[in-house]
Write a structure and sequence with these properties.
RibDG_C; 23% strand; two-stranded antiparallel ribbon; 22% helix; EC 1.1.1.302; nine-stranded mixed sheet; DHFR-like_dom_sf; 2,5-diamino-6-ribosylamino-4(3H)-pyrimidinone 5'-phosphate reductase; alpha/beta; Dihydrofolate Reductase, subunit A
């Protein structure tokens, strides 16, 4: 257990991206004491406090890309930028990672008013998709976006290799539940960083968990006086990508 004098920046150092010869994968999310990430599917639920939210933005500043599933995009309309260190609502750090959407059938309507497109400094998301809709793909590329077509959107080795081929050496996987479950189950994650809020969401809550048991190495816990949340950070042994 860390002392209050130790910052989360120091605590997280061993779990940050540490390789450039492949795409380093970090899975990070906030959950309740009963391992729920939301009160119900599709319902946005605030779990992180101000301090651990700032920690999330610190992590974003350390990654090339930030990845979420299309259901999370539609439900939450996130900005997916980095506001560290100021945390000002109108601040968009030059360290903001590249947004990446997992969108099997390319459902995202980029012509609508999305939060992450409102700033002139915002980065248009990279769409990872199985879709062969050449018209929509061409329109999005003309719009200024980028598309990575994959054979199987559940194949995280293919996703990581694709990201690396585009120059991304690290990706932060933030959600939602299906994406977290799939990524953890694949065994490709290098680090897992979980914020645990002091609340139960109940059996109707949306859980995030892999489909089988996973043992992590070097687990560490961080707490600080006056901060209600706890952070658990762990290392994984990623599958071979060679």
């Amino acid at each position: 257990m860390n002392t209050p004098e130790n910052s989360y920046e120091q605590f997280l150092e061993p779990y940050l991206p540490s390789t450039t010869d492949r795409c380093f994968v970090t899975v990070t999310y906030a959950q309740s004491l009963d391992a729920r990430i939301a009160c119900a599917p599709g319902e946005r639920t605030k779990l992180s406090g101000a301090d651990t939210k700032r920690m999330t933005h610190f992590l974003r500043s350390k990654h090339d890309a930030i990845l979420v599933g299309i259901d999370t995009v539609i439900a939450d309309n996130p900005r997916l930028n980095c506001r560290y260190p100021t945390m000002a609502e109108d601040y968009n750090s030059p360290l903001s990672p590249q947004p990446v959407f997992l969108d099997t059938h390319f459902r995202w309507d980029f012509t609508k008013d999305w939060a992450l497109l409102r700033s002139s400094t915002s980065k248009k998301p990279l769409i990872i998709t199985e879709s062969k809709n050449s018209g929509k793909i061409a329109s999005y590329i003309e719009f200024g976006g980028e598309v990575l077509q994959v054979q199987d959107i559940r194949n995280w080795t293919e996703i990581a290799r694709g990201l690396y081929s585009l120059g991304y050496t690290s990706v932060m996987v933030e959600g939602g539940a299906k994406v977290i479950d799939s990524c953890l189950t694949s065994g490709i994650a290098d680090s897992v960083i979980i914020t645990i809020a002091p609340v139960f969401l109940g059996t109707n809550g949306l859980a995030a968990a892999p489909s089988h048991a996973i043992t992590f190495s070097e687990p560490r816990w961080w707490r600080s006086e006056g901060v209600p949340d706890t952070i658990c950070a762990m290392k994984c042994d990623p599958i071979s990508m060679k």
